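User: structure tokens for this one?
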Amino acid sequence: QVQLVESGGGLVQPGESLRLSCAASGITFNMYAMGWYRQAPGKQRELVANIASSGTTNYTASVKGRFTISRDNAKNTVYLQMNSLKTEDTAVYFCNAHSAGFGLTFRGQGTQVTVSS
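Assistant:
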């Protein structure tokens, strides 16, 4: 049974930081590209960042320079360090695991991030 369990969300003020974690089980973690998506109320889900099994990273333009995605293959965990948070970063953040080779994609239940003064 595949599980992606996100944690680390919460309520912070603009300019503050949060670190999201996603612990994966039931998959061969180092064979999956891992990503973070977010969905704000009334908006479509969007890719925030992803990291290939090789470690190559990709970010959406609005978070470049503020967010950092990383992975620890020994712990089957992917992280999203979010600095200088803005109100527009408020959303539910979802962890995603994708394997092109296996043709499989899994997504977690999400964690709420609220940035408000």
